[in-house]
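@channel sequence for tomorrow's demo:
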Amino acid sequence: MQAQQEFDLKKVLPIGIGVFALLILIISWSSMTTTIRSGQGGVLFRLLDDGVDTEVTYGEGFHFILPWNNMFIYEVRQQEQGEKMTVLSSNGLEISVDVSIWYQPSYAELGKLHQEKGLNYLATVVKPAIRSATRSVIGRYTPEQIYSSKRDAIQSEIFQETRDLLISQYVQINEVLVRDIILPPTLKMAIENKLKQEQESLEYEFKLEKATKEAQRIEIDALGKANANRILSASLTAMILREKGIEATLKLAESPNSKVVIIGSGADGMPLILGDTK
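structure tokens (generated this afternoon):
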């Protein structure tokens, strides 16, 4: 009887151990595996080793990890963050600015980003950088420059300064867009009136310059004609005029459509044409 019990125990014990191991595996399966989806990167934290693995960024796919380790998932595709803020111009006037930043974490340095900044790096790093750069750049311009002629330059400068601030923070900046600049209504109206007056002044100067050039052209044309007539008058002697008259008369006489009758001569000795064959 005792031998039978010992035999049954030997049969049941391995089965029990197997069932227990299976239960442990099922319970711990979620902590032993992780899936990194498209557009994501993983950072492994080793509890019993050196902590955050700053050398390897885990790519997309299915990964096995030890139950006591953790995998932190980051979005590594380009993301957008909009910021609306009130800043001061160079003369101390308040201006509302709406900017948008396109950013993404540096994939190769994802471990360092996690170790030094953490998952909340947008709030602790990106937002403060874009705010600081925007205030710095806007503070160099007057409201008139901001509203009219310097918008592209302001956008470019904000991008440069934001990139410089974040380049050592393991964050890549792809673009900064100034979506809107809002001035106080009275200031906006004053600037628009000034710009309108400047435009009208430029149009008047253009018309005046055009009229001046046209007058100069007419004067030059008249002087040219006067000089030509004076030269021509000086060259037309009585002999040249008589010769030209004779040539013209001969050509008329040779014409098949005309009959020239010459009687006497004119006051200057030129032949007279009295009629034709018609």
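heads up for whoever presents: The longest helix spans residues 185-235.
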